[in-house]
TrEMBL record, chain A:
Keywords, comma-separated and alphabetical: Oxidoreductase, Pyridoxal phosphate
PANTHER family: GLYCINE DEHYDROGENASE (DECARBOXYLATING), MITOCHONDRIAL, GLYCINE DEHYDROGENASE, DECARBOXYLATING
Organism: freshwater metagenome
Glycine dehydrogenase C-terminal domain span: 360-461
Protein known as: glycine dehydrogenase (aminomethyl-transferring)
InterPro entries hit by this protein: GcvPB (IPR023012), GDC-P_C (IPR049316), GDC-P_N (IPR049315), GDC_P (IPR020581), PyrdxlP-dep_Trfase (IPR015424), PyrdxlP-dep_Trfase_major (IPR015421), PyrdxlP-dep_Trfase_small (IPR015422)
Entry EC number(s): 1.4.4.2
UniProtKB/TrEMBL annotation, chain B:
GO BP terms: nucleoside metabolic process
Glycine cleavage system P-protein N-terminal domain segment(s): 2-439
Keyword Mitochondrion: no
Protein name per the record: Unannotated protein
Length: 495, 441
């Protein structure tokens, strides 16, 4: 016992954690496979595996410990405040995890006949109805696997629409503001459109004069996040709508920031023709360390014929998948979409009901409260009421003390917070993008703001403590340049 | 609302601090003509108990209490309780993409281990952190191939999962690529026809075992692709790779597939994970996240998202894909599952499937139900000729609580009397005897 009390409880936090392959010992195993006691047919020699893959060999208890240990070196919304701007890190209700595990959901096969999965189809149909109400649009495809695939799907739908009108060759340009997520221009490139960038004005809205000069009869449409990645609602949205309507172009709504406006302003009413909804943001599908997500799209009636197949339709009391859609762009992924994501998001929507509006109201209240507490200590490049998030700049700290947004982010870890999104959007230098969501208590917001103010003071008084942060994580700052220069992307097994 | 902490007093204090008099005033930047006046027209709110009852009622409308031989790309393999338990760790479940590595070493190391496992299974050098599913990774592979070869033709075998082919056609329209399908002959693909079609092609995609469950002459298909200067891409089932050769060991440039069979429930088609692995020369063309090993300031090993200059948040329209959110949690399930299996368990799983499928094939033949492609070797799935409409056969079998498989005519016109039967290690000899009785009846 001697000395044990003096040692920190998690000594191994300060040591490098072994890889599961380094814990492997030949002959151990973690799962027994039923042996049917039948002869195994031979595989032709030239098609048979010659040397066994070096999978780890561990007994079950060690597998459980390995992954439990890894989990303690991670941080989720369950662990604490996670104000990662643009990602909407909100509470994920535990009941949803129980519901998604119901055998009636978990064990149904995607190619089962419609009559044996009526409950699943009813759930999907109900989800579509809620998404129609939230977006103010007419028809929904649940298929896209994530927001970026929703973008790709929506752009292909727009393309098919113009082709059906004989304008496919003419409508080449998609207008995107400089504040957009990188997915927008990447999706434009992947769907064969051309990118037309447009500037942001001093209030954080699209620069209308710049826009006017860039929209013409060769424009297929606009892609806009509203509120923008600056957390600001574009005050000129009606004027923007008229500019695109006047030339017969369409408008695409990147729903990444929908958490600001559910029940308050509908993209369909803003003039948008296609919307993707990030179910893992606004509707609480857990982010899973980087997925799964869900990126359904909703469209105006003129675009419905082009939606991916299959779609979920209702005939009286029965539901079915409709595959026969002659003008459809086709399939963008397997089956009818990520069903487990639908179960969780639908459950989340049903827990709120029409009070989803209050969800957005509180998200916006929380963000504005933090904004007023932090502006002053940090630069606020766009001094307006924000929506569900806001963007600060550490440029004042950089200029005066050489402290960057990265330093602030790393120091926040010392206080047990996940940092905000940094260096995005690109139009703000040393950006710190903060999104509290509706989930947080005022005490949490206050405690975080107190720490942010303390860090700003430290920048002046003790900049070294910021530059060397984090101090209490399993690793200190990692050499990302080295990782990219000589990539090691798999274990080498000692070779 | 039990998900909200703010009290009325909190709200008043916060509004006062902001300097507005009401919540409504926070939204004054939204022009009046785009504000939504009405109450949200959605189904009413439910308490947790009511929600549970409602969801249980929906779940009860789905049929699950049957013995199933339905596969066709999504398979009823066993998932260990350990997988469920690890995935419910809140630190994994409720985290996001590890942009801040010091805060995320757990998931970064797990992805690094996942990448290693995928490389080991496929015999490739590099793997990304996952794609959406087995369909979209095929499109991702084409994007890599276009960049690598400067060519725009996609060749895919007809015996590749129809949903993969359909997804390719959709994506190809956006990529400005064309899709050419090489028909099967007797359940497998002739390498000579692949060589012919592969002229000027960027990529040749084939499935091993193919959609009919048959083993292709995979090394010859890969060689045909390479001979034409196209990338060879095998779409494989992870569960088969304990007994079947790894694509990297027969010359493939890319190996892709649906990861569901390793560690994910069937779950009505998702969420699952797609995997994409490549030879090292394509590392900078890969889509999606990649985790790399590095050191911290004290020289200690650590992991980071790496080669990010490929990605959309840096490269924007010049990125290798638009992917951000992928399928990390499902890939983690795959890693846990494969770690439990180890090389021995993986091999035994493959052998159990083959043994049971072989038994089923034999017993069916003994009752006059012959394989559709009698010449071919199969893995865990095979097609049979029923001599009657397979849809009818499925209907009558299901009335007895047994789902015998996929009527092949649903996806391959002209095969209306054929049934595709999948046998996983979860089935028993007794289950198969029942299948035989039901189909032979």
């Amino acid at each position: 016992m001697s000395g044990a009390a003096d040692r920190p409880l998690t000594t191994d936090e300060s040591d490098a954690m072994p890889l599961i392959f380094e814990k492997s010992r030949a002959g151990r195993r973690g799962l027994a496979i039923p042996n049917p006691g039948l002869p195994v047919p031979a595989v032709p020699a030239h098609l048979a595996r010659k040397s066994a893959p070096r999978l780890p060999e561990l007994a079950e208890p060690e597998v459980v410990r390995h992954f439990t240990k890894l989990s303690t070196r991670n941080f989720g919304i369950d662990s604490g405040f996670y104000p990662l701007g643009s990602c909407t890190m909100k509470y994920n209700p535990r009941v949803n995890e129980r519901l998604v595990g119901l055998p009636g959901f978990r064990d149904i096969h995607p190619l089962a006949e419609d009559e044996s999965v009526q409950g699943a189809l009813e759930l999907e149909w109900n989800l579509q109805e809620i998404l129609r109400a939230v977006t103010g649009l007419d028809a929904v495809s649940l298929q896209p696997a994530a927001g970026s695939q929703g973008e790709l799907t929506g752009l292909l739908v727009m393309k098919a629409y113009f082709e059906s009108k004989g304008e496919g060759a003419q409508r080449r340009k998609i207008v995107i503001p400089d504040t957009a997520h990188g997915t927008n221009p990447a999706s434009v490139a992947m769907t064969g459109f051309e990118l037309t960038p447009v500037k942001t004005d001093a209030r954080g809205n699209i620069d209308i004069e710049d826009l006017r000069g860039k929209v013409d009869e060769n424009t297929a449409g606009l892609m806009l996040t509203n509120p923008s990645t600056l957390g600001l609602f574009d005050e000129n949205i009606s004027e923007i709508r008229e500019i695109f309507r006047a030339v017969g172009a369409l408008m695409y709504y990147d729903g990444a920031n929908l958490n600001a406006v559910v029940g308050i302003s509908r993209p369909g009413d803003m003039g948008f023709d296609v919307v993707h909804i990030n179910l893992h943001k606004t509707f609480s599908q857990p982010h899973g360390g980087g997925g799964p997500g869900g990126g359904p799209i909703a469209v105006r009636d003129i675009l419905e014929p082009f939606l991916p197949a299959p779609t979920v339709v209702r005939d009286g009391e029965a539901f079915r998948l409709e595959h026969d859609r002659p003008q459809s762009i086709g399939r963008v992924r397997g089956y009818s979409g990520p069903f487990g994501v639908f179960v969780r998001s639908y459950a989340f929507m049903r827990a709120w009901g029409p009070a989803l509006r209050e969800m957005s109201e509180v998200a916006v209240l929380n963000a504005n409260y933090m904004r007023v507490r932090l502006q002053g200590a940090y630069d606020l490049p766009y001094d307006r009421l924000c929506m569900h998030e806001f963007v600060l700049s550490a440029r004042n700290l950089k200029k005066e003390y050489g402290i960057t947004a990265t330093d602030v982010a790393k120091r926040l870890m010392d206080f047990g917070y996940h940092p905000p999104t940094v260096y995005f959007p690109l139009v703000v230098p040393e950006a710190l993008m903060i999104e509290p969501t509706e989930s947080e208590a005022k005490e949490t917001l206050d405690a975080f703001c107190d720490v942010m103010l303390e860090i700003a003071r430290e920048a002046a008084d003790d900049p070294e403590v910021l530059k060397t942060a984090p101090h209490f994580r399993p690793v200190t700052r990692l050499d990302e340049v080295r990782a990219a220069k000589e990539p090691i992307v798999r274990f080498g097994f000692g070779s | 609302m039990s998900f909200l902490s703010l009290t009325d007093a909190d709200r008043e204090a916060m509004l006062a601090a902001i300097g507005v008099s009401s919540i409504a005033e926070l939204f004054r930047d939204i022009p009046a003509d785009v504000r939504y006046a009405g109450p949200l027209d959605v189904l009413p709110a439910l308490s947790e108990a009511e929600l549970t009852r409602h969801m249980e009622e929906l779940a009860a409308k789905n049929v699950v209490d049957e013995v199933t031989f339905l596969g066709a790309g999504v398979y009823d393999h066993y998932v260990s309780a350990v997988v469920d338990s690890v995935l419910q760790r809140g630190e994994f479940l409720t985290a996001y993409t590890p942009y801040q590595p010091e805060m995320s070493q757990g998931v970064l190391q797990a992805i690094f281990e996942y990448q290693t496992v995928i490389c080991e299974l496929t015999g490739m050098d590099v793997s990304n952190a996952s794609g959406y599913d087995g369909q979209t990774v095929a499109a991702d592979a084409c994007f890599v191939a276009r960049a690598a070869t400067g060519r725009s033709k996609i060749v895919v075998t007809e015996a590749t999962n129809p949903q993969v082919r359909e997804t390719l056609v959709t994506y190809a329209r956006g990529f400005g690529m064309e899709v050419v399908v090489v028909p099967h002959e007797g359940g497998v693909t002739d390498p000579a026809r692949v060589r012919e079609a592969a002229e000027d092609a960027a990529i040749v995609i084939f499935q091993q075992p193919n959609f009919f469950g048959c083993l292709e002459a995979a090394p010859d298909l890969a060689a045909a692709a390479k001979d034409a200067g196209a990338l060879a891409c095998a779409h494989v089932d992870l569960i088969s790779l304990g007994v079947l050769e790894a694509p990297g060991n027969y010359g493939c440039d890319l190996a892709i597939g649906e990861g569901q069979s390793a560690g994910n429930y069937v779950s009505y088609g998702g969420p699952h994970y797609g995997f994409l692995a490549a030879s090292s020369e394509h590392i900078r063309r890969l889509p999606g996240r990649i985790v790399g090993q590095t050191v911290d300031q004290t020289g200690k090993r650590g992991f980071v998202l790496t080669l990010q200059t490929r990605e959309q948040h840096i490269r924007r329209e010049k990125a290798t894909s638009n992917i951000t959110t992928n399928q990390t949690l499902l890939a983690l399930a795959g890693l846990v599952h494969l770690s439990l299996l180890g090389p021995q368990g993986l091999r035994e799983t493959g052998e159990a499937c083959m043994a049971l499928a072989g038994y089923a094939k034999e017993q069916l033949a003994a009752r006059g139900i012959e394989p559709l492609f009698p010449e071919q070797t199969t893995f865990k799935e095979f097609a049979v000729k029923l001599g009657r409409d397979a849809r009818d056969a499925v209907r009558s079998a299901r009335a007895t609580g047994l789902n015998p498989g996929l009527p092949l005519g649903r996806v391959y016109p002209g095969y209306d009397d054929a049934l595709l039967i999948a046998v996983t290690e979860k089935r028993t000899v007794a289950d198969i005897d029942r299948l035989v009785e039901v189909l032979a009846a």
